[in-house]
Design brief:
Radius of gyration: 26 Å
Family: Belongs to the TM2 family.
Distance between the termini: 42 Å
Helix content: 10-25%
Strand content: 15-25%
Strand order of the largest sheet: 1-2-3-4
Protein name: TM2 domain-containing protein almondex
Order of helices and strands: HEEEEEEEHHHHH
Subcellular location: Membrane
InterPro entries: TM2, TM2D1-3-like
Keywords: Glycoprotein, Membrane, Signal, Transmembrane, Transmembrane helix
């Protein structure tokens, strides 16, 4: 699949087909200067370098990219070097190659599963086409630090007093268990089973750790 036609429609596409380029000097805050230890030019990553490709690439194939160190950056060695990378757009990178803003206002335990759209940014060592920041739809999955083991131990030992429900944030049910002595033991056993199979989780919709 030739992605040249898609690339030409990208905002800011230039005739020399440069990628990972920023027109401002903001990148200098993240790049080596004279006051810092000077690294080799070949080990620098975005935003300290800009990479060009000399030929149209086919998605999924490996290509050599010619990379240049940006102005005002101090490094050892040649400021022009080659790197090999897969031909793809930044939004096509694998999930471990970019980081996404996590949201904690959704229910991770909902059925069917909940998804939300958030901003993702490609890691600095990844070379890709197009914008390095993009929108992606990901599954709601977050944690507030609630431990499954702690909840299970509380259910088995102090479940008759509602300690497990209080720990999970289910205050009303916790009060009910406290004044009913765990539903005379029945409620205690049921909650221990539900926590054991991960069916009963934190009240805020987060996941166990």
């Amino acid at each position: 699949m030739d992605i040249q036609s898609k690339e030409n429609r990208l905002k800011g596409d230039t005739g020399d087909k440069a990628i990972n380029f920023s027109g401002s000097d903001d990148y200098l805050k993240s790049c080596p200067t004279l006051e810092q230890e000077v690294p080799d030019c070949a080990v620098l990553n975005y935003p300290c370098i800009t990479c060009d490709r000399s030929v149209d690439c086919i998605y999924g194939n490996l290509y050599n990219y010619t990379c240049f160190v940006k102005p005002k950056i101090v490094c050892n060695g040649s400021k022009t070097f080659n790197r090999t990378s897969v031909c793809r757009f930044c939004y096509q990178t694998d999930k471990w190659e970019h980081r996404c803003d996590q949201k904690a206002n959704c229910n991770s335990l909902a059925s069917p599963l909940k998804f939300y759209t958030t901003n993702c940014t490609v890691s600095d060592d990844i070379i890709c086409l197009g914008k390095r920041r993009f929108l992606k739809k990901i599954r709601c999955s977050w944690t507030a630090g609630t431990r499954w083991g702690t909840a299970l131990i509380l259910a088995l030992t102090l479940g008759g007093f509602g300690a497990d429900r209080f720990y999970l944030g289910h205050w009303q049910e916790g009060i009910g268990k406290l004044f009913s002595f765990g539903g005379l033991g029945v409620w205690t056993l049921v909650d221990a089973l539900l926590i054991g199979i991960h069916h009963l989780g934190p009240a805020d919709g987060s996941l166990y750790i």
